[in-house]
Amino acid sequence: MAMSLDNYRLKLKGKELVPVVVGGMGVNISTAELALEAARLGGVGHISDAGTEALADLRYGTKFGRKKFERYRGYIDNPDKSDVHFDLETLAEAQKLHVDDTMGRKRGDGMIFLNCMEKLLMNNPRETLRTRLSAAMDAGIDGITLSAGLHLKSLQVVQDHPRFRDVMFGIIVSSARALKLFMRSAARVERWPDYIVVEGPLAGGHLAFGPDDWFEYDLGIITAEVLEYLRGEDLDIPVIPAGGVFTGADAVHFVENGAAAVQVATRFTITQESGLPSAAKQAYLKAREEDIYVSTMSPTGYPMRLLKQSPALQASSKPNCESLGYVLDAKGQCSYLDRYYEELAANKNKFPVVEDKFCLCTQMRAYRVWTCGQNTYRLKDVTEKLPDGSYRLPTVEEVFNDYQHG
């Protein structure tokens, strides 16, 4: 008799969970409602802290973005954004509001984790990261998944927090080599990760792989290399593959080969509880395989898999660092910002058209960057077409159960 994923359990700090982890997709694609459903069903749901202040304004009616804009409005036409900073107290308030509201509504036996991107440098990388991590722990988050970077100092900046040993920490890596680097830094604070997410080349969003690398690398092989490394170090840490795990059968294959669970995201983008607008969900469902590609237009420096129909790819916008500015580096610079002012200088009196980068902060907040996994074109096969030509949107519970029992 064939085994289903329900025959297995993910064990984290003595707790047994359904081995389905829903990845953290920002800005607010992984809504609190999506994450809460995953937790209610006994798995792990992620919320994301990408654009926390903008997210708080959207969800709770706060005016964090407006207040920051008013403080720095004098920099609107100044290409030098080095003095445009987040107020750390306000940032902590937004983070606590987001996490506390979510945790206060949690039901069931599962857990809620926060996905925290190191690449959100926010013109003050160390202190904004410390603030985001500390505020999430203050607000009672179950766990924190460190993503979009090696996070070589992330544990150090919060090692004195009262919940540092309580909260579960995980790291996303795309190779055993990257994991080794992180483990060296973890050893300095004597704090091993509680779980390791191995993200392969078929994942959506920002990637550690180039546009053509997905032909050469395989999630199963990378996962096996990570498992071998941990065995060699005599470390028993749950390993969770991610990227291209489209069915329950795919998930069972990984678990039978040593994984503790799987992390999935793309199939949840089109659920009723996802934060994507309906038009974007339908675009995902109607996508063909040739519509999905890896772009180098993100200003983070990482390649990004997305739909070619993403409105962000055809749009230029004036940088909005005064109210946003999440990807400004430690010097207040961003590759989109640089390109915008280059085009402005070259084409005076005309609105600059930037063709090789997009403004990630503005476009993500407006849901115009349609990031997705390589298997997005298969979404239409797991729902039904309606008489009007649109597709039925499943619930989180339907998709979760399909992984668990399918």
Detailed description of the structure:
- With 406 residues, this protein is of the alpha/beta class.
- It has a single domain (18-405), classed as Aldolase class I (TIM Barrel).
- It has 13 helices and 13 strands.
- The chain has helices spanning 32-40, 52-60, 64-72, 88-104, 125-138, 154-157, 176-188, 219-232, 248-256, 278-286, 335-346, 360-365, 396-405, and strands at residues 10-12, 15-17, 20-22, 44-48, 111-117, 143-147, 168-173, 195-199, 205-206, 239-242, 262-264, 292-295, 304-307.
- The strands form 3 sheets. Strands 10-8-7-6-5-4-3-11 form an 8-stranded parallel beta sheet. A 3-stranded antiparallel beta sheet has the order 9-13-12, with no helix packed on it. Strands 1-2 form a two-stranded antiparallel sheet.
- Strand 7 (168-173), helix 7 and strand 8 form a beta-alpha-beta unit.
- Helix 2 packs across helix 4.
- It starts with 9 loop residues before the first strand and ends with a helix.
- 52% of the residues are buried.
What attributes characterize this protein structure?
three-stranded antiparallel sheet, about 35% helix, globular, eight-stranded parallel sheet, alpha/beta, TIM Barrel
Tell me briefly what this model is.
The protein has 406 residues and is of the alpha/beta class. It has helices at residues 32-40, 52-60, 64-72, 88-104, 125-138, 154-157, 176-188, 219-232, 248-256, 278-286, 335-346, 360-365, 396-405; strands spanning 10-12, 15-17, 20-22, 44-48, 111-117, 143-147, 168-173, 195-199, 205-206, 239-242, 262-264, 292-295, 304-307. An 8-stranded parallel sheet has the order 10-8-7-6-5-4-3-11.
